[in-house]
Request: fold
Amino acid sequence: MSDELDGKHGVQSLEVGMSILRAMVTGKRSMMLKDIAQAADMPPSKAHRYLVSLIRSGLVEQDRLTSRYDLGPFALNLGLVALDRVDRIRLGLSAISELRDLTNETVALAVWSDRGPVIVRWERPRRPITVNVLTGTSLSLLSSAAGRVFAAWLPEPQTEALLRAEIESGRVSAGITTLDDARRLLADVRAQGVAVISSGYFARGVEAAAAPVFNFKNEINMSIALVGVEGTLDLRPQSPVLLALKDACDALSRRLGATAIPGVEPGGHAA
Reply:
C-alpha cells in the first residue's frame, strides 16, 4: 500500500513524519536512530527514510560526529514564530484592556494579514456614546490610523500594491493622489511615531490615533489604535491620550523583546 493517502484522509506520509518529530520533541535531547524509531513505533529503516527528508527540509539535523539527530533550524524557527504569535496576541489583549481603563476610550488591536491590517480585538469604554469596532474588519492603509502605521513601518515592497490600489480607487484622504504623496504622509507618521486622523477617516464621523508595536526583530508586529466620535479625542501633540497610547505601545514592544523603538532613547525615555 502506498504511504500516501490523499483526499479527505489526509497525507499519511506527512503524519508519519510528524510522529517522528513528536518523538524527538518528547525526547527533549538529541537522539540516536534506534531511539527515535522505538519512540515513533516503526522500524529503524523506515524512520531513517523519513529522517533523510526531514533533514532536507530543515526540520531535523544530524551531528556527523555522534550520528545523533536533533531538531533543525526550520523547526526552531517555527517554534519561535508560533511562540511570538501566541504571546503577542495574549499580551496585546492585556495592553488594550489596560489602555481602555486608563483612557476610557475605544481601543483596538490590529495585526497584519495578506489583505492588509485587520482588527483582531477591541475594548469598549465605559461611556454612553462610543464607536463600535468590528472584529475582523480590514483597514485601509491610508484612511485608517492603524493602516498608516503599518504602511509607515513595513517595507514598501510589502505594501506598494495595496497603496497603489487605494490611490487609484480615489477613496483616500484629500491631497493624496500619487504614491509620492503617500510616501510623504508616511514619512511624517514615522517622524511623529504615531498616526492621527481627525478628519477623512474611512468611517464617517470617526477619528483615531494609532501607534506601532515592535517585536524582538525590531519589526512592526501589531498596532494599537484609539478610536472615538469625531471631536471627542484630544489628538493634539503630546496630549495625555496620545502619550498614553505611545507609552502602551512602547511597553508592549519591550515585552516582546524590541530593543530599538522609534522616538524612544535606549534608556527608555522619550526622545
